[in-house]
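Provenance and format

Records in this collection were gathered into a single text stream. Each protein contributes a sequence line and a token line. The two records reproduced below are adjacent in the stream.
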Amino acid sequence: MANEDKLREYLKRAIADARDAHLRLSEAEAKAHEPIAIVGMGCRYPGGVASPEDLWQLVSSAGDGITPFPTDRGWDLETLFDPDTDRPGTSHVHEGGFLHDAAEFDAELFGISPREALAMDPQQRLLLETSWEALERAGINPHSLRGSATGVFAGLMYHDYASRLSGVPKDVEGFLANGNAGSVFSGRISYVFGFEGPAVTLDTACSSSLVSLHLACHALRTGECGIALAGGVTVMAAPTTFVEFSRQRGLAADGRCKPFAEAADGTAWAEGAGVLVLERLSEAQRLGHQVLAVISGSAVNQDGASNGLSAPNGPSQQRVIRQALKAARIPASEVDVVEAHGTGTRLGDPIEAQALLATYGQGREGAEPLWLGSVKSNFGHTQAAAGVAGVIKMVMALRAGELPRTLHVGEPSSHVDWDAGSVRLLTEERPWPRADHPRRAGISSFGISGTNAHVILEEPPAASGGDSGDGDGQENGTASGEATTDLSAMPVVPWVLSGRNAQSVRAQTERLAAFLGERDHSPVDVGFSLATTRAVLEHRTVVLGTDGAAPLTGLTDPAGGDAVISGAVTDGRTGWMFTGQGSQRLGMGRGLYDRFPVFARVLDEVCGHLEAELAGGPGFGVPVREVLFAAEGSAEAVLLEGTGYAQSALFAVQVALVELLRSWGMGPDVVLGHSIGEFVAAYVAGVFGLGDAARLVAGRARLMQGLPSGGAMAAVEGTESEVTDILGGVPEGERATVAAVNGPTAVVVSGDEDAVERVMAVARERGRRVSRLRVSHAFHSPLMEPMLAEFAEIAAGVAYRQPVLPAVSTVSGQLVGAADWATPEYWVRQIHEPVRFHRALETTTTEQGVTRLLEIGPDPVLTALAQTAVDSMVASTLRKGRGEPETVLSAVAEMFVRGSQVDWPAMFAGTGARRVDLPTYAFQRQRYWLDAARPVTDARGLGLGVAEHPLLGAAVSVAGSDAVLLTSRLSVRSHPWLADHVVAGSVLVPGTAFVELAVQAGDRVGCDRVEELTLQAPLVLPEDGAVQVQLSIDGAEDGRRALWVYSRPEEAGAEQPWTVHATGVLVAGVPAGGWDLRVWPPVGAEAVVVDGLYERLSGAGLAYGPAFRGLREVWKQGEDLLVEAALPEAVAEDGAGFGLHPALLDTVLHALGLQEPDAGADTAFAAIHVVGCVAVRRGRLRRAGTSVSTRHR
């Protein structure tokens, strides 16, 4: 029997263990196959595609994104194209799919310096921007993932941005390596966003982005990361790939892919970037992220030893498809469409089609065929970004319920046996309705190295993501949780926008206004979405609306009043000031009580504590809240005029305000309070709990109320020493005292009525303003002494703690020490000693570094004092006569735009607001592109002398004579600053450049002065290409030499004549010195307004760019103009090689444009002997003459 029992127990344990093992195995298997949700997408593709919606617009409208070669990358377009496929170094096509703004980047947003941005491969920059957009579109604040296990998987295949350079430009030394290293492409994204999951950059050529997606799915399922960004990027910095494939005859002659078509004649190279935000489906549903589509399976394999390294392998493609279907655990017949690799090559397309026919084309009898298409027909083969382009296209097709047609097909390829299976080309657009199984698509990408990838995409399960309304709070994309606002409607709706600079905020505002002008989104939903899905940056705007149209009105009219609060974050801390007695008013807090449950709950709690302490005291038979909210003119309303209820009500309202602000994530760095307000400050600092604080306040209020009436208080204009002097000079002065010092000349006296009246009279006699205060007692005076002993007993019964944050005492005016707020003696002294608010305010803003002050109280009493005394920004929570919800939200916004922390999402808790799609960040891009310098040949190796000047190349001494020939090559690429000198729409070499050339020519032949220089013809630089320049210096004759300046196009034949642009005469000898410029500006010189000069010159056809806009200040003295000018930093770095940089001298001459039209000067240039000058600090222009004296910077 015992053995049977043992056996029975063993079997029970074994069965339980087996069940447990089976459960664990099932869970592991489910986790290994868990669908992966796509929750966000960002992209850039040819044809102006800047978003998934743009991509869908392009493909659904049969758009074509193919364009001519870019003109801004330094490609030699004159020689690059040649229809002869055998000509070395050329491309037989001149079109492709390009990102023509690939050089544009918002470096400031990502905290990247201009020099580093210039050194960075534009592919890195594109990944940064598309990652930011993808996260925002997923409803994820890009900054919220800092420190999280978020992974980055980036596909990449080009590294030609740096490799095309013949040398490392000095400006980017130290940045170029990291800016172009493949590992940094993913690593930089993790660094900038603060991700701590895996960061992997991979190159499997054209399958890179789909392989990245596959690896990201695996990392999510194994728990290596909770969120993953996956995608790829391609930018061709050099035309090398076009040249290579032209030799292989692999490119379509018209630059367009014709997938699976009889007319297919090769691929078409293109660029792009795409990023997907991925989560496990269960996690996306828990967080309430909108699920755009689901990846149910994926696979990667290799061609292996096929019939050629770059030749496709049909059986391997079949295997990768079957592996993906197995991973998705579905039959091939339940996939509706395949977004093919489909590059349009005669070899690859038929192999791919046969693989699809052998897999997806089977077992579909009586059902729809597999539909086949390729986005490459719209904008070409985007290579490392191709797979993700197909994914985005199919996600958008799922959402639209439509399959777009594939372009350029015409007749299907005769090299494919289309009867071998049920596969049809999408030669026309088709609806994609829901069927008896989830709609699914396969996406293929095959790399030239043989790495193949296939992904199974399917529509999201019903009610996935934020649209479901399930889940908990903001984790479900809805504003649930404890209600801090009226559930029926928010009294004030804040729309929060921010940017890295003021321009980005304005652009964001304009973009949002235009977007919402075409949609009917709830203002609360918009506010919630802005608050929960966008990063908070330094420049900020808060638009407040009290009805449906108001926020949108504020967007379209930013100057429309108090509803729009804008500012920039300032350094420094946040201080909270708490108002004292005298600011109380009937109904204070009523507007907040009615609309904000947190405020109402706390106010009721505080009033309960106060009433318990006041109970039984004479004159305190009415509840505090009834007095606070009493009708005007009622008996209860009169009670608020007495100090007992006034102090209690002020304390209650301020504490409720504190807790309301805390519920919105706000808090002070430093606190201080005026009189009764100091008790609230101590409560906020954690010195005592709410019950003890109420006990102190109620005891103080009750005892003061019980003092005999009488006494007076008055505000006196004057310093403390002046008022003290008045007090000491009148017989009644001993019965009055200084009660408060609120400002440098704002003092309050308190005491016996006749003594106060006498002080007022003397102050008036001295021309000082005085004002009698309406008070029931003479506070902070010796008249308070009868209550001190009893109050000391109350104070002794309270539990104190040291402050948990810095606090400033208004008794001492200094930082609260250990013997201050945490002792009963302090609170006794606080009753009868002066309030030194001004000194406390100075301590707060100087020693404590507070630059933002918020007054918490019913009226801006302290705000007015602070605004006249310190430079800090000041706001107040409430103001008489204004709606309280609007006023408190305005104050919150004022503090926020200057740098205070605000938990805006918490403000929407309990409203039921839902996340809606909004425009992504308005990038403020600038151009960053390293121009590949033309390879320089050492002039010495050609038997020539080196000119060693930025405008000159070689120097040749003509044999048999003392003549000299100088040569040069000028272009807007070799000398970018020349592109800033545009006249009548053409880039002209400025006349000052001929001056510099003439001076340099003279230096080389011993001539110190340019006696004469005549410009014969303008020298126009082409947009592309260059001009050859020669300076011919004749032999010396009587110490004089003739100078000739010639040019002709670089590609000119030997027989093409040269154009004479300038002639001159060089002589030896320096003329006598010019003007005395030691006193600057000279006595009697009048300043001339420079503003608007360049706008006027532009209107006259003189379009000067930054290099020529260095005019700083101009003065006029008689007929002379006195000038200060400087080169911009980017140009000044190269200034050392010049005598006087032509852009700088030209800029000096711009001052002539400030004269009246008939006052122009015929300018003859004196000899200029300076080296490396980048700023003219003292220049004088005179009719028929010029003198330039410089000081080096």
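Adjacent record:
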Amino acid sequence: MTGKTVYFRLPETEQKHKNSVTQEMLGKSISRAFRSYKAQFPQYASKEYETVAKQFCEDFFLADEAIIANFANLSLQDNSEKKISLSIRISSHPVFNQHIPHNIAVAVIGYCPTATVSPVFIPERVFLTHGGMDATAYEKQVETHFYQLQENSYPPRSQPNLLSSDFTKSLPAYAAKTKERLSGWLDFLTFKNKLIKHKTQGLRYLNWQFNEETGQVHFLVIAEDEQVLKKTRAAFSRQSLHTFKTEVSTEPFRFILPKKDTTLVDSAFSQLGQLANQGIKIIQKNNSDKEKLTFCEDFRRESQKKADKNNTFDFSKAVFADVFVDISEELSNHIAKFEDDDNREEGKTRQKKINSLFKNMPESGFISISLVGDLALIERHRRAVKNLQQNEGCYAPYLSSYLFDIENANRPNEIPEITEWENKNLNDKQKSAIQKMLAAPDICLIQGPPGTGKTTVIAEACLQFAKRGETVLLASQAHDALDNALSRLQNHPELRAVRLAKSANRITEEGKQFTGESILSKHYVSLRNYVAKEYLQPFNALSEETEKLREWVKQAEFVAHDLQQLREEYRTNQGRLKQAEQALAQAQTEFATQQDAFKQQSRDVESITQLIGLLKGEDSGEALRHSDFALSETFHPLVEHIITEFNHLKINQPFSYERFLVESENQTAILYALIQRYRRIQAVLPKMEADLARLNSSNGAMGADTKTLLEIERLQQEIDEIADKMENDDSDELSTQWKEKRKALRLLKEKPSEGLNSDTYQIFDDAERFTQNNPEAVRPLLMQRIQKLKWFQQQYQSLALATVWDLNNQLQGYDLQLPSDESVREKQADLEALKEDKHQITERGRLKKQQAAQILTDGGFSAEADFLKEFAEQQNRLNELENNLQDLQTKNRDFMPLFTRWQEILKEPEKSAEKDWSELEKPFVGSCNLVAITCNENERTLTDNNFDGFDVVIIDEVSKATPLEMLLPLMRAKKAILVGDHRQLPPIFNEADGLTFEDEVEQNEAQENKQDSDTDLTEDNLHKFEKMVTASLFKELFEKAPESLRERLNIQFRMHPDIMKMINYFYERQLTCGNPDAKRPHGIEFKGLLSQKDHVLWIDTTDDEKGKRFSINDGQSNINVLEARMIAKTLVDMNRQLETLGYGKDNKMKVGVVSFYQPQCRVIRDEIRKINKDKLSFSAIDVEINTVIRYQGKEKPIILLSLVKNNGGDRTQKFRAGRANIARFEFINVAMSRAQNLLLIFGARNMLENREVKLPRMDKAGYDKEMVYKNMFKYLEHWAETGGICDAKEFSAILPNIQPQQKGRR
């Protein structure tokens, strides 16, 4: 035999020493390795393990045939001077790879002594490896022969032995180096195991019941004594509680976990909740519930009777207690969503829904903390680490190398171009991330800050991998994050996704659509859609388009005909209407002329009549004062006489006869003025005659005037009356009156005359001549003037009568007849009739145009288009479509029936899936190319469903998973894609309080009572296991990764820009908004504090509603009743506002209430019930109350955040970087960034103002201490375009004053 030879021998049949391997043990290893390929290799499924070992070695070590094999040193200790654990891996094995995929190779590991001259290889175990077919960096590839030695035989010294010491020493000590790297991981598992067991306490419960009113599960428990209850109360405090079946414990009444095999330690009901305040109450003998006391004592007696001699539980001293557990946020939210109906049948349905939530709760069992369930996980992690040490069961050949140093990861030769994106809305950053995910040979890292669409990227990447024929394992640390990523997947026939979980009740509603027959239904839908899109839709679309256009043209044809006819009618009507308007205008002109003549004659007759009345003295003639009536020459003698005589009589007047003749338009007014003067003369003349008579009777004197005479007569009468009274009364008073009257009479008679009254003579220019006190001069003047006036009066009357006679003759010449408008009315009627015709035509045209516009709109055309023109164009287009359709029908004539039948088969995918599932479950699940599990899922969940290795594993929310949690999925695929954000939620150590390992250490070391502290939770252990309990591994890998292996998404679409600006303080302002102009309505306003255009409001709860300093005590460090109360009132007011905007049962606004602590969530629920008729549901808002841990990956239009912590200090207090009694910045970042449209923060400013935040740098390694929150407050106070900050007192003042309607829960 020539060439390099490997000599091997089967193990012994009997075990010679403790660590030696037998043929039986080798056979069992072979059977386990090929358990997934029993059908292909039935010979390895036999229970005759020695026969299996012999058969396998005959198949693997091909005799008389040279074969290329890969050799590796998998020794966990570098002891190559004496021996090594040798791995022989043969790619493309001619026997095995006929039946198993070519990316799987069979490897044999065995003992190889190196101190001897002629070493012999002893196979000890077998496993299947995954990955590339070429030799890895730690292997050497050699073409060799295999030769089997019989028992007690040795290699011939004359033949070259490949396994010489030089060769074995040249093999890299890969496993030893990996073991060294992973030693810390194993140490951490030992530490965690010890920590869990140290914390583990459990109580045996006998029965349980759920009280919906209190939101609590009530357990009746039994414990050895009160001391056990006390220890348990301390252990349960602030922990998430699970229930376990009784079989989990090694004892029936004590919670004792098995010391060795902890793989079966798994909870029956997880995420139950937290121990209520004063949640453990011992049942005393004086308990009022006699029935409960009787049950307990009966149980004690029965248990004592059944107890055997090995029983160490003393039932006689045992105590019974009531344990109350506040249910978790998940359970509370589920129950709150169940419709509450007073209808009995509906009520039953609701109760059934509640019962289904608790269906996995054992009737009796144990209660313990959630960490207990991690014991089985620790064993799985330990096994995974050991496998990784020797590359056993690991599909990624280089995993351990680049997991510790990203520089060892292979880099892509090029970034591929993707020609077809399923999601057309991806931005450039998202596309770049997907391209790098496809290109990376080993690992790719994607950082996705809030709202940047990392789940969108995952969804597109999964489809792109599927199109390339690659299988994907999708994993995440939490069920809800995993199911959220699943829900974003495109429904495509090339992507067949299945969600697997040992506990199906942990799968959310989003994930359930990827389980059971639902996945087959989804696949049927995708197939139906694909056939329709690729084959039927082109024909159907063209047929539909043609038929639609044909119907449109048919419908439009009638309208087009009517429109054309209406246009003709309209043009004819317009011509006739124009003629009628002209005829009417002419008739109106003629009638107006006739009316003007009639009006003028009427005015003349009226003026003449008034003049006659004026001249005859029968009319005042007031209407003539401003008349422009032109007098005829008949008036000239009268006017001339009046003006001439007025001048002779010295009567003052302003008009001359010449002026009268010239101003014809003023003649009537002048005549009126002259006659008024004449009438004044008539009034004055009798007074002048009276004055003349007075003068004639005064004997040459002027004589007393009439007024004086009357006064004399009055005084004489009064004197006579007093004299008569004095005959009977001689009083001095009467005597005095008589004398005074006599004196007055005498003075009046002796008063000299003052002349004539000047008012009478003002008409004359020489009036002063009449008023002089000279009777001799006045009398002749007065007589002369009276004579002339009388003569003038006679002459005037004569001329006036003559003028009146002439005017009456003129009146006889007027023939007043009202002009007729009959012609106008006839023409108007003709015109109105034509206008009515026009209106009718126009109205018919308007309706027809509306019909045409609707037809245009229905046809997908612009309503403003010219209908007739569009109709003509579409007639031509219809002809083209009909020709194209005929061509397509001819082309697809043979296939159309098949396509149609396919659609008919998949018409009802749900029913078809339900019918086919029992037959197709196994083959369909086996065909799925995307499998989704949580990081902590038992690997048997995959193997039981015949899934081993994958081409790609994508781990979402990777920063929330520890390296050990990532290890299980990482080992299942050739390539890893890690998606996360180390500025969001880190790994959680205590989910109930949202505490990381670092937080627990800080709290533990701050405890004053060191006896209650945990000695393992120390700063030393934190530093020792930092990478095991933080997101620092992802951070380190991302920071050191070359650009070709990483991408950061920085364009967010979730948050309003103003909310994003708050979040940007955590990201060095590198986030940008991809849709800044998108409408993000929330419909909420708070008078003076927040308008509907605002999007951020911080309500500072440093002080309470009355402005007094507020603080929470240590006993309630995770409860803030002030914030809970304000949030409850805010929700009630939001519901009221949104109800008025039309939100209701079928379109509720989604609102999220977020806190960091489960107790605060419960208190918020209590406060809501108090003021909301004992209900958590609202009419217009859909409220989800949960911890931030449960909110990662989610989003809501409106978010209310409760920060809780408040130590009562002022804003000047300073804090070091770290937690220091406030939520970590990662938690606050996640909570705030859930908001899309409105963010309301209820938190004490005094706890954040001067707090340093240790922020990881964005673009390089290291951290910086930043005053993040101080910058936020500055932004809200000075720079925010919308929103701001107010205190609790201001905010409470605008909230409705709602009084509690009942007491809250205990």
